[in-house]
Amino acid sequence: MVKIDLRQFGKSALTSDISVPKDRDEKQMGGDIPITYVPARNTIFLSYALAWAEVMEVRDVFIGVNAVDYSGYPDCRPEFIGAFEQMANLATRMTVSGGRAFAVHTPLVHLTKAEIIRRGVELGVDYAMTHSCYDPDERGGACGRCDSCLLRKKGFVEAGVVDPTRYVGE
Fold it and tell me: With 154 labelled, which of 23, 78, 127, 132 sits at a CA distance of 20 to 30 A?
């Protein structure tokens, strides 16, 4: 098992002792890159996935990035994924000498949160077993006020699906 501890990089409200922003409106969320951005997170995840894919001799990796209803993270954009894929095809033995190209698939990249939720319902996802909170309490309860919780709540409303998330104080 490989352990990835992004706390060693710090400089993010998700990996350091920095307050998670709360109660922001969508305009604020879509402004500058937020303090919840984890430096190079998807680059790190995709690099590990690429190494494992090469070992397993597979050419396809999937990642759940989203560039529609998101908080402005640069490593969730299609441009980043395309650049990573191009780099992967230049940097691995399996693609340089093996012929077939490596591909990063992003099935959620152009979907709204509502579309993602509806698709999850179609696939039988038990959303009661999930949360997206950036600042959960010690028992795992979602705060209901961070950017991720607010976007999730909005997505459930727009999808017309009851949100089963246990939000603290609700």
Answer: 78
Alpha helices in the chain (DSSP H): 26-29, 41-56, 78-91, 93-96, 113-123, 147-159
Contact 54, 94 (CB under 8 A): yes
Contact status, residue 89 vs residue 95, Cβ threshold 8 Å:
yes
* Angle at CA of residue 74, ends 71 and 78, nearest 5°: 105
CA gyration radius for the chain? 18
Helices (H) and strands (E) in the chain, counts: 6, 2
Q: What angle do CA 132, 140, 65 make, to 5 degrees?
A: 20
Residue 78 CB neighbour total at 10 angstroms:
12
DSSP reduced 3-state for 73: coil
Give pTM, 2 decimals. 0.90
Which residues, at least 6 apart from 165, have a Cβ–Cβ distance to it below 8 Å? 127, 128, 130, 131, 142, 144, 149, 152, 153, 156
Is residue 133 within 8 Å of residue 142, measured between CB atoms? Answer: yes
- Length of the chain (residues): 170
Measured CA angle at 98 (ends 96, 99), to 5 deg? 85
Q: Residue 57 phi/psi, 5° resolution? A: 60, 45
